[in-house]
Design goal:
With 447 residues, the protein is an alpha+beta fold. The chain has nine helices and 29 strands. It has two domains: 215 residues, Alpha-Beta Plaits (2-Layer Sandwich), CATH 3.30.70; 215 residues, no CATH class. Helices cover 24% and strands 34% of the residues. The strands form eight sheets. Strands 1, 2, 5, 6, 9, 10, 11 and 12 form an eight-stranded antiparallel sheet that branches. The chain starts with 5 loop residues before the first strand and ends with a helix.
Length: 447
Amino acid sequence: MTYDGTMGRIVFHAQLKILSPLHIGCGSADRSDLDVLVDDEQRPFIPATSFVGVLRHAIVLDPSDEAGHGESLKEFWGFAKGDEGRQSCFICEDLTCISPSPRITIRDGIRIDNKTGIVEPKGKFDYEIVEKGAVFDLAMEFSLRQGNADFVKRMVAAIYNMLDKGRIKLGGKTNSGFGEIALIKDQSFLYSFDFSTKRDVYSWMTRRFLPENAILPETLGTPFEIRSKEFSMDVTLRIKNSLIIRSYSADPKMPDATHIKSGDDWVLAGTSLKGAIRARAERILNTLGKDQALLKDLFGYVDDKTRSKHAKKGRISVRESVLPRYFAELQARIKIDRFTGGTIESALFDTMPLFVNFQDKAAIVKVRIRDCKPCEAGLLLLVLKDLWAGDLAVGGEKNVGRGVFEGISAIIEFEDEQTVFEKSLNALPPEQKSRLENYVNALNLEN
């Protein structure tokens, strides 16, 4: 044991793979309006401050566990209050990118005026992302102190469990499907060092991670239960005709606009889908005469006048979905002078939307709400009804029929109950139909 009561260390080395675009901004706008953070070799990295901050926010223990481990939690994360404080029980290094050639690309974004449905003046912006597939190195080290060794082991097990299940998201726009990560299990190792033996002390000091020090996650104890009251909705949809979420190329030989890609895959961008869901939710609340505070609490908001002074992060997240292998087709279009009926000069443009070639190809939309209330579940069900029936279009060129879906199947989970339906909502069993109606009724009763 050391002079500060440290009985040993647990070392956690792992590799994390990015499953969806990652954006960790650096505050500069040299290459885009929002550049990603890179090191002196122009390679992206994830600051340890960001990673640990996400862990601390995500790991909220079940009330029964939190009540009995209040002091241990303070010691684990560290704290500072006035003249009092304590260093945390662990060290985390910056996560460096070990992929040979990580791809950094630029995506376009727009701000839509909810009243007019068109882009706000000066509402076009772009931002850099690290494309999915990049791999980052993770190195963490946990101190086992006298009196809290078992607690720290269970916290390490909880962190490992959350990373393994993909419950941690990093960076910006996580509510729009960015920052999903996965633990590469065959490249993830846990080592335990007992400071009561000289051999372990020497191995730890010389950074020799020997097989005899390796341990399995199961030996750390039972992971703490993470508090979560989540609404989940997994919807399988089919595109009726065509779809385009615009992406613009700097290559003059390319079409004026093509459908957006992530790596080599067509995607249904979470930013576009979440924006469409929010706009329809706002319309539903206006129709029902409900307070917009419910919308702000669910989707988050930024006060346009004061910007950073009044802002709140939303609790709803929409995953970015990889689309099947639809085929893209170039279409030339023109603008017509409404007075003369002729073509406007220099108004020829072309786009390359996606078209369905086989009716069995479908897209899966995944929506989650943290700490969901029954009235919010009811609001999302009404949005789902419009999306299911083809009344809610997504993406661009909606005025010519693009972006319309039809529902195939859906799985809804909330309050330990699961509802599964296909095609017709009328085919639901009476008890499931009644449960969904109760959520909508909760919205109607909301002030």
